[in-house]
Amino acid sequence: MKCPKFHAACLSEGHQWNEGEDDCLKEECAWWDRGQERCAILLLGQETYWLKEQIIQIRDKMPHAGQFVK
């Protein structure tokens, strides 16, 4: 079952979710996360953003090529 709101979803600047309360199917939707009581599409987007930030921090802490070469 596909989410009827998937193509209508809009992420605004600042990673905020704009969701039409009157249009959301909530518990009836296949993308609804009952544990978080929110749309799983939003959750996936936020988790992906968090992972990207973590990878950037790891990259920035890694030594540069040739840094330890004598």
Question: Please, could you describe this protein's structure?
Answer:
The chain is rod-shaped, with a radius of gyration of 19 Å. It is 31% helix and 14% strand. The model has no long low-confidence stretch (mean pLDDT 75). The chain is α+β, with helices and mostly antiparallel strands.
Order of helices and strands: EEEEH
Name the quaternary structure. Answer: single chain
Roughly what percent helix?
A: 25-40%
- What best-fitting shape do the alpha-carbon axes yield? rod-shaped
The termini sit apart by 59 Å
Question: What is the total number of structural domains?
Answer: 1
The poorly predicted ranges are none
Widest sheet, order of strands? 1-2
- Total beta strands: 4
Question: Main sheet, how many strands, which sense, barrel?
Answer: 2 strands, antiparallel
Broad structural category:
alpha+beta
Provide the residue-averaged pLDDT. 75
- Beta-strand content estimate: 5-15%
Q: Helix count, per DSSP?
A: 1
Query: Which value, in Å, is the CA radius of gyration?
Result: 19 Å
